[in-house]
Amino acid sequence: MEKHIKLVGVLNIVYRCVVMVGSLVLFFIAAIFSRIMDYLERRGELHAEDVPREILDFVPFILLIIGIVIAIVSIVGIVGALGVMKRKEWGRILLIVVSFFNTLRVPVGTALGAYSLWVLFNDETIRIFNPLPPDRQEKVQT
């Protein structure tokens, strides 16, 4: 199970870094959104009557909020994965929460989330993260 725990940590870090790049793309699009709309209007591909300007002015704000949420979840996932790799119980719990959210991101997030949950809820993994104190180990063995 040790190899699975390490693999879950590494895969979650890699996946969250890739997702973080996606949030940076959203930040970039939000920053240049008005320029994109102006360009489309000049080319004649977007007319003022197609979409009200008030809605178009609100789109960068929505993109920014989505990017911030994705960035926060990615940072939390990376921190949780690092905690799992150091065999910290708080990291396991944090990564379990993030893995539930991963399952909503079909197909890669679903596969990674399901695998992570399988590893993190495994009885052997729980024993690795929560070893019994020495006085309790003697009672269990006898």
Descriptive report:
The protein is mainly α and 142 residues long. The protein has one domain (2-141). 82% of the residues lie in helices and 0% in strands. It contains six helices and no strands. It has helices at 2-43, 53-85, 89-102, 108-120, 123-129, 134-141. Helix 1 runs antiparallel to helix 4 (108-120) and helix 3 runs antiparallel to helix 4. The longest helix is centred in the N-terminal third of the chain and has 42 residues, at 2-43. It starts with a helix and ends with a helix. The mean pLDDT is 90.
Topology record:
Elements: H1 2-43, H2 53-85, H3 89-102, H4 108-120, H5 123-129, H6 134-141
Can you tag this structure with a few keywords?
142 residues; mainly alpha; 6 helices
Largest sheet: none
The sequence of SSEs as H and E is HHHHHH
Content-based structural category = mainly alpha
For the terminal residues, how far apart are their CA atoms? 25 Å
Number of domains: 1
C-alpha-based Rg, rounded: 22 Å
Percent range for helical residues? over 70%
Shape: rod-shaped
- Work out the helix count: 6
Number of strands: 0
Strand proportion, as a percent range, falls in: under 5%
| Average residue pLDDT | 90
> Could you name the ranges where pLDDT drops below 50 across 5 or more consecutive residues?
none
